[in-house]
Amino acid sequence: MSTIITIGNFELKWYSFLLLVSFTLGSILIFIRSKKLNLNKNQILDLLFYLILFAIIGARIYYVVFNLDYYLKYPIEIIKVWEGGLAIHGGIIAGFIYLIYFCKKNKISILSITDLVVPSLALGQAIGRWGNFFNQEAYGPIVKYEILKRIHIPNFIINGMYIDNNYHYPTFLFESVWCFLIFIVILILIRLKKEKLGFYTSIYLIMYGIERFIIESLRQDSLMLFNLRIAQIVSIIMIIIGIFILILGRRKKID
Questions:
Q1: Full-model pTM
Q2: Is the CB of residue 149 less than 8 Å from the CB of residue 143?
Q3: Which residues contact 117 (CB under 8 A, 6 or more apart)?
Q4: Where are the domains positioned within the chain?
Q5: Closest by CA position to 66, among listed 84, 95, 86
Q6: How does pLDDT run across 83-117, given as a tens digit for each residue?
Q7: Residue environment code for 123-140, b if the CB has 16+ CB neighbours within 10 A, otherwise e
Q8: Is 223 in contact with 186 (CB distance < 8 Å)?
Q9: R_g of the chain computed on alpha carbons
């Protein structure tokens, strides 16, 4: 189910393919919207290349750290990112670290760049979550088949959520839909010219933080820190930061 095509020893995985699609579409959107920031072509190419690179490395390191017992036994598995195991929070953190460097180097406001990036991030997450579906990851608690039919989940998703002899809630789907909604909301706000610095960033942080906190409580494969779901902790931090940016942006100009 996780493989699209096999040619000799080469396998094209759905997870890898969907990541490529999400990065490509996100990059195109960033390239189109970057014109307002007066960045030249080389600056944009640097931004896209290193942002994606840092995001992938950060997402993998984050996932490995919270599954360290397994990867200490099988260290070669660390490099197999095409098989899954990328944590979006790790990608966001590492990507943000690179953005700080990029903004300092080019003397650009960090929030102007995060405002540029967040629509692409939300769209990429909406697409990328389907990689979890094909890898049978990011699923929820056991549920009866009849309930999934009752809430109008398509048959191919229901069948894909049949894991370990039980049907599960497709939490990957709930998150994908919500991330696409975030993307649409931000696009609408852009069309309405809500240009307050940091506004789109705050909307993303608040909307995604709330959604992820709720969905994480349902997931059966959460990354844990002792008895705490680490994604819920990070989600709370995201919400707080988003509210802080929103309030500060209303009071005064922020850079």
A1: 0.91
A2: no
A3: 30, 51, 95, 99
A4: 3-251
A5: 86
A6: 778 999 999 999 999 999 999 999 999 999 999 99
A7: bbbbbbbbbbbbbbbbbb
A8: no
A9: 19
